[in-house]
Amino acid sequence: MNSEKIIGHGAEAIIILEKDKVIKRRISKSYRLPQIDEQIRKLRTRAETKILEKAGKIISVPKVLKSNEKTKEIIMEFIDGKKLSEELDNFPLEKQKEICKEIGISISKLHDENIIHGDLTTSNIILVDDNSELICSQPKDNGSGEEKIQCKKLGGIVSKFKLFFIDFGLGFHSQKLEDKAVDIHLIKQALEAKHFQHFEILTKEFRKGYSNSKNSEAVLKQLEKVEKRGRYKGD
User: Fold this and answer.
1) Confidence (pLDDT) at 14
2) Same domain, 107 and 205
């Protein structure tokens, strides 16, 4: 019996759940010459694998179990959580703020290593939430982004969560302020479109987290230029 289940279908790939693994399989494009299509899918599979492996040393992303350039597949661990786009609005405002601040911290770490996500939205962030009680009065950080656990007092209940960033299919390496600014513009657009009730507050928290970046001031200044041009509106 085939245990594969399609859980996502994009323009470039299908996402398959098989037991405790996720398979990202790049699909063939009939409008491309077969040889060119083969090479493009092979190179994109290789590039995304490398970015995932590098990002995994910095922040929380699904672990790559295997990459097969022949079948154009990346096999990753399954993250048992929910899309942040579906969950964020359900939390108390204080927790929403803490989550957005943590997004900013994580992206600042990526950008300091010149990794651009390329499709930074709340739909590409998986929230693993645990409302069990913890003995902690302040956020804990053992110095590892991957193992970091955030704790926040919420009405006497201590909540912990972890954010996993997914889908680096449009990711690339860049030192350019413009590329980093566009990354931030994308998450701002996502917050405004899907989480508009507290958009300004949540954006402010993101910026607080992103201020950890060594180039945050320059990137945020470039972001102002990007938004003034308005060239990415409607993407």
Assistant:
1) 95
2) yes
pLDDT tens digit string along 96-130?
999 999 999 999 999 999 999 999 999 999 999 87
- Locate 35 and state its tokens: 């040889």
Instruction: Provide the whole-model pTM.
Output: 0.84
Residue 235 lies in a domain: no
What residues are labeled active site? 119
The tens digit of pLDDT for each residue in 39-62 reads: 999 999 999 999 999 999 999 999
Domain boundary among 54, 77, 100: 77
* Owning domain of residue 22: 4-77
For residue 220, which amino acid is it?
L
Q: CB of 108 within 8 A of CB of 209?
A: yes
State the SS3 of the chain: CCCEEEEEECCCEEEEEECCEEEEEECCCCCCCHHHHHHHHHHHHHHHHHHHHHHCCCCCCCCEEEEECCCCEEEEECCCCEEHHHHHHHCCHHHHHHHHHHHHHHHHHHHHCCEECCCCCHHHEEEEEECCCCCCCCCECCCCCCCCEEEEEECCEEEEEEEEECCCCCCEECCCHHHHHHHHHHHHHHHHHHCHHHHHHHHHHHHHHHCCCCCHHHHHHHHHHHHHHCCCCCC
At 70, which CATH number?
A: 3.30.200.20
Domain annotation covers residue 234: no
